[in-house]
């Protein structure tokens, strides 16, 4: 126990020195390149926070509970910074290494008896860092799943699961587009740029029905061209032909993206269902 207290006192009394040595190492290390994008003060503060809490985590009667509290918070902070999981863990490995490098440099454990007692400190430190890896990995997974769940839920709202409401809404949009086309071509006799409104049913159709939704774009494009032929014989048809082609092209791109989103949602639901089972 004396050897353990000796190590704790060393870390506590020299926390800033050890933290500065760690900060220099973690920035230069090839396995922790993310730290190079962080301000020097922020990196140093991270090291100080760990070494200042070393006694509390090391000496507690319930190291598992103390580690969960501290390292879950550590994981949340690194996650918000955008740090990759492997670098967040390796940064801690370097923290552990610098404790023993400093202790060795200061020749803390000199005698054979002290060196034998130091095994207790080493075992306790390894246990603490084992807990750290466990809780950091666990918290990162929870945060990633939470973020993915929020994104999937947002996409689910956009995709409007009610099939009946989809059909009614789309019917209203198509009827409105047809009436607008007829009014502009037959009544007004002009080729105004009203077709931008067509992208509303085109995009919704591609999102809801993927490749089948491309048929909506084809219908609107065909209706536009036929209406032009019927009512605007004195106006060149090229512009409306190009618009019809663009309708189909946009719908196809959106449909492909929507299918990818649907696959992600199915995969996520499969993972959730497997965890519940």
Would you mind describing this structure in some detail?
This protein has 277 residues and is mostly helical. The protein has 2 domains: 2-151, Globin-like, CATH 1.10.490; 160-276, no CATH class. Helix content is 82%, strand content 0%. It contains 11 helices and no strands. Helix 5 crosses helix 7, helix 7 (112-159) crosses helix 11 and helix 10 runs antiparallel to helix 11 (238-276). The longest helix has 48 residues, at 112-159. The radius of gyration is 32 Å and the shape is elongated. 23% of the residues are buried. Mean pLDDT is 83; it is low at 109-113.
Layout of helices and strands:
Layout: H1 2-13, H2 15-28, H3 40-52, H4 54-59, H5 63-81, H6 85-105, H7 112-159, H8 163-188, H9 199-209, H10 214-231, H11 238-276
Helix pairs in contact: 1-7, 2-3, 2-6, 5-7, 6-7, 7-11, 8-9, 8-10, 9-10, 9-11, 10-11
């Amino acid at each position: 126990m004396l050897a353990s207290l000796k190590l704790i006192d060393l870390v506590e009394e020299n926390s800033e020195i050890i933290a500065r040595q760690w900060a220099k190492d973690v920035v230069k290390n090839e396995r922790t390149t993310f730290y190079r994008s962080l301000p020097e003060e922020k990196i140093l503060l991270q090291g100080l926070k760990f070494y200042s809490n070393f006694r509390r985590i090391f000496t507690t009667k319930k190291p598992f509970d103390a580690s969960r509290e501290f390292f879950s918070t550590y994981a949340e902070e690194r996650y918000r910074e955008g740090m990759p999981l492997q670098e967040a863990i390796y940064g801690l490995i370097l923290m552990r290494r610098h404790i023993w490098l400093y202790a060795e440099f200061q020749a803390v454990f000199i005698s054979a008896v002290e060196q034998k007692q130091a095994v207790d400190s080493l075992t306790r430190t390894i246990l603490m860092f084992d807990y750290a890896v466990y809780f950091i990995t666990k918290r990162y997974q929870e945060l990633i799943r939470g973020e993915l769940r929020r994104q999937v839920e947002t996409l689910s709202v956009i995709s409007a699961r009610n099939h009946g409401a989809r059909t009614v809404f789309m019917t209203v949009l198509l009827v409105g587009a047809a009436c607008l086309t007829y009014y502009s071509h037959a009544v007004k006799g002009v080729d105004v740029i009203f077709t931008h409104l067509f992208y509303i049913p085109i995009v919704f159709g591609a999102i809801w029905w993927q490749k089948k939704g491309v048929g909506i774009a084809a219908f609107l494009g065909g209706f536009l061209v036929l209406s032009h032929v019927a009512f605007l014989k004195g106006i060149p048809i090229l512009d409306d032909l190009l618009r019809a082609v663009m309708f189909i092209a946009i719908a196809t791109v959106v449909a492909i993206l929507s299918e990818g989103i649907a696959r992600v949602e199915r995969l996520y639901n499969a993972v959730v269902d497997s965890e519940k089972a």
